[in-house]
Amino acid sequence: SIKFASDSMVQTIEKNSFGECLNLQTIEIPSSVDSIGEKAFEFLHISDISIPIHVKKIEKASFLGCIKLEMVIFHLNSEIELIGKEAFSETSVNTITIPKHVKKIGEKAFYNCENLKNVIFCTDCEVEILRDYSFASTLIEKITIPKSVKVIGKRCFDECKMLKSIQFQRD
Description:
Elements: E1 2-3, E2 12-13, E3 27-28, E4 35-36, E5 48-51, E6 57-58, E7 71-74, E8 82-83, E9 95-98, E10 104-105, E11 118-121, E12 129-130, E13 142-145, E14 151-152, E15 165-168
Parallel strand pairs: 1-3, 2-4, 4-6, 5-7, 6-8, 8-10, 9-11, 10-12, 12-14, 13-15
């Protein structure tokens, strides 16, 4: 278990900080953090994670392979702009709400999340790019693509065998 002091000044959790700490089951990221580095928490056995309001970037493979991770909670007024490549790949997340200020969802960000059924984009979301394989190999049944999206990468929804409906939001 990791719990930072309430007055923690930690701003960045760097690359590989806690990756592969296989006995680590709970983490409370301090509100002072604004960036989560590449592979920072990969392969942990955590079941949920709350992303603090000031985090702007979740880098490549930050939570890759956290097979017990079922719930990712973003602060209501989250400042996050980037969900990086493979950030949540191969987790057990079943619903994800994409915060308003996310501009880019990286390649394979939610790839092979075998329990992912619901992807919800916040009202007036600013997402512009859904990279290659972003939601491939998931259980998504329906999705509404926000009007802000300019690029849908190749095979973005590849192997989504339950996908029945894609709607494009209008003005």
